[in-house]
Amino acid sequence: MKKIQSALISVYYKDGLDEIVKELNAQGVQIFSTGGTQTFIESHNIPVTPVESLTEYPSILGGRVKTLHPKIFGGILNRRSLKEDQETIEEYNIPALDLVIVDLYPFEEVVASKAPHSDIIEKIDIGGISLIRAAAKNYADVLVVSSTNQYSAFLNELKAQNGAFSLEQRKSYAGASFQISSHYDTSIFNYFEEDSNEVLKISNTQKRSLRYGENPHQKGMFFGDFGAIFNQLHGKALSYNNLLDVDAATSLMQEFINDGPTFAIMKHNNACGLSTRTTVKEAYESALAADPVSAFGGVLISNTAVDKSTAELINSLFCEVLIAPSYDAAGLEILKQKKNRILLESKPLIASKQSVRSVLNGFLVQDKDMVIETEDSLENATNEKPSRDEIKDLLFANKIAKHTKSNTIVLAKGLQLLASGTGQTSRVDALRQAIHKAKSFEFDLNGAVMASDAFFPFPDCVEIAHHEGVDTVIQPGGSIKDKLSIEYCNANNMKMVFTGIRHFKH
Question: Which CATH superfamily is 375-498 part of?
Answer without folding.
Answer: AICAR transformylase, duplication domain (3.40.140.20)
